Automatic annotation (TrEMBL):
NACHT C-terminal Cysteine and Histidine-containing domain residues: 789-817
Matching InterPro entries: ARM-like, ARM-type_fold, NCAB, NCC-H_dom, PBS_lyase_HEAT
Protein name from the UniProt record: PBS lyase HEAT domain protein repeat-containing protein
Upper lineage: Bacteria, Bacillati, Cyanobacteriota, Cyanophyceae, Oscillatoriophycideae
SUPFAM superfamilies the record matches: ARM repeat
Amino acid sequence: MNVWEGEKNPLRDFDVYRNLDFNSQQIQDFIEQWFNDATQSQELLNQLKESNQTRINDLIKNPLRLALLCRTWKRGQKLPETQAGLYQRLVKGHYQWKDEQKPFQIPFEVQECLHQQLGELAKTAINREQFRFRLEEKFVEQYLGKPQRENSLFDWALKLGWLNRVGLASVEEKDSDQAVYAFFHPTFQEYFAALAINDWDYFLPRNHVNCPVERKEYRIFQPQWKQVILLWLGRDDVEAGEKEEFIKALVELRDSCQDFYGYRAYFLAAAGINEFKECSLSDAIVEQIVKWGFGCFDIKEQTWVKFLAPIAEGARTILSETIREKVIANLIRVLETTEDKYNHIWVAESLGEIAVGNELAIGSLIRVLETTEDTDTRRKVADTLGGIAVGNELAIQALIQVLETTEDEHTRREVADTLGGIAVRNELAIQVLIRVLETTEDTYTRREVANNLGKIDVGNELAIGSLIRVLETTENEDTRRKFANTLKGIAVGNELAIQVLIRVLETTENEDTRRWVANILGEIAVGNELAVGALIQVLQTTEDESTCEVIAYSLGEIAVRNELAIGVLTQVLETTENKWVRSWVAHTLGKIDPGNELAIGTFIQVLETARNQILCNEVARMIGEIAVGNELAIRELIRILETTENEDIGSRVAEILGEICPENELAIGAIIRFLETIEDQFCRSLVACTLGKIDPGNELAIQAFLGILETPENKDYCKNVAAESLGRIAVGNELAIETLIRVLETTKSKDTRQSVSENLGKIIKTQKQYTDVVFTLKHNLTDEVYENNFNLYKHCYSLLWQCAQNLPYPKFYQVWHHNTLTPHPEITNNTPVGNTPTVRQLEQQFTDICTQLPHLPLHCININKLLTLNTKNEFIQAFCNRLYQKLLPDGTPPEVQTPANLETKIIHLKQQLQTPHLFILLLADGTPTPEVIDCCDYLTDVLHLGWVTPDPLPLPPPQRSFVASQDNLLEAVESWVREY
């Protein structure tokens, strides 16, 4: 099956796979093989190369969609320009294909009805909180009838392949033995859903004015609806005026929350105009997106103005989804008008994503390459050309010009790398690269040039031959080393080159040259017996420690399981006393003879006795590479950890244990005990970091990092390490979130604030935590903070931007304004005045709700006597008692003290009841205390809570308030449940 969303409950007994996208060459190969007709395949390929087909090219990267396109395409046809047009053609082609077989010939009127019901089914499924693309049989039957009944809509959907049975429901779902179905492909489900939507009010309330419309969904901010919205905009049966109104509403949306949601709506509009290119606002939208992404020139201030990072990054991200021709034109204008090097770099990066083969973009980038003096810009532009200008002669010539004239070695390397990608078999490029190879003094440039010669002309004999000649004739050791090093890139496995290098190794008396050549043989001569023998010979005769290290390393690369090498290394290990040499030889022995006890024992001995910190670090690294899961190493390292008095050595040992046995309980216990004794803050942070990696969420490690963060005397480096570690191990930890917020607002260090901000964003998990962050940090987004502490302002803005991506708009609005939802100015308040029902009337109405909606997973609880409880502990235990009495009347309610305790119990309760949802309707004849509302708010991640009261309650979403006297109370409650 395909993975189309992060489902929490995959089908049981199924492995999960994802279809990988095709690249452009694979698409071409697929089309040519499909048609087996050069003329027909070439006509389709030519159409796909047209500039207005970028969207279709993106879609057909998916193998299934490409196959369907090939099946339905005919010579002389024009390709559709929208996704909806493509799917309309694919659906029509699907019926034509099925019609070839008599059992599948469906009457037209039945087909129309089937499409309508498939649309309703698809729409409702996507609107669910879970299992959007996995449809239980009972759920499908509500729209298509029984599958067993011949010629029912369900029967037709199965015969035609629109629905397919994919297995059984998961154990977490009710009726886990019932069949589960899925659409032919999730994208077809989205297409049918788009067909079922008649009014864009379904996505965005038409009467929105600056604040959320109560009881209306804002699906424009729900990611599962984005593709449906784009398909709706591409429908040819929706009037252009309706689409225009919708785009205009998106562009003009104001949210009264500093436009966090306004930007999201605008970005959606930018993607939408790609499906509705006739939109009168398209030019202005693209221009605005480019302005946000790259800045603009302020005529009054005579400076280039840039926007906050989240806005700019969001705008640059959406560029690839909007109308590319307009984007490219605007980006070229920015490229040619701004002198800001970062804008040049960002524009080049964006063009690299959307302008493959575009001559205007290539020409503009070439002009920048030829005129800029900035080396960073040159490198980025060269890199971009490597992605969009494959085989382009003008680009190749411009790059060659830079390569021959620049004196900056970084630029030379970048340009050489680019030529390696776009100038395959280009003779002029090969000659120039060889010339650079022979003249440059920079080792890294020579290596990069050699690597790219290998890409342009793999195994380039001309280059290899010239290098070998120099090696054989020169007596200059520097030249020998340089040219030997160059062979690494282009002569892997080349016998002649290996033989020449062996001769150099055997004849030179210069230890530097020996080390260089040995290192190169370790990369190009894997398994070569002559090379192994030559290296062993040097190892047995040299007295130079550094040469021993390099030889040992190279043997580790090319002599795996080689008996001769194992014997010689063992002999060296038993006879030498030099700790550095012993460490390197032991490392090599462990690589070529995994589990070698002599090697591991040597490491343990060196680690215990060494006084050199650098040696200890190196030995620790080596053990981590060769002793994964080795019982002897684990046992000895635990012994050292429990006996050493040296915190530095203990820290390194703990780190090794974390690498070689991350799930070993004895090791984890030893690390915890060691952490409790450490006094040095740096060592403490290292060990806590190790503990956090192998035991995420470990409270001791989290406490250690929080202590480091809140100790003013600690250096920024230690605080940054602590923040980064918390970002990995403290996801969802309330105390960590509170501490990071406190440090964010109080630290004087910009580096620490940046690290804290980035990692705070990683550990916020629940809606409640997102709302807490909004509530706590909102006060920093003021003009005063902007002017006096911009660093704090921008980091708070970034975090609140993230919160807006993860919170429903009404919820964010309510937290932002610290009050309940403001009634929309166009909505009349229909709450009756002076008509408060009595408690008895309320209870009777409550009973009626429960008895009239027995088909819903709804449970009603009277909490009148709980409303006056003014401590959370009192309410939470009383509420737990009522909840268990209702759901498990024969059980004993557990003892709970905090909302978190009850949350855990409810999770277990849902597992016990085998239900993913619990809807609880609370009856109250008055207003609950703030403590009661807070407790309920905390539980909304595991319960759906609704209230029935005489008057509307100021509840934070997603809790829902119902007025007992409203006429449509039953329908409103039922609608609330069905939303999920």
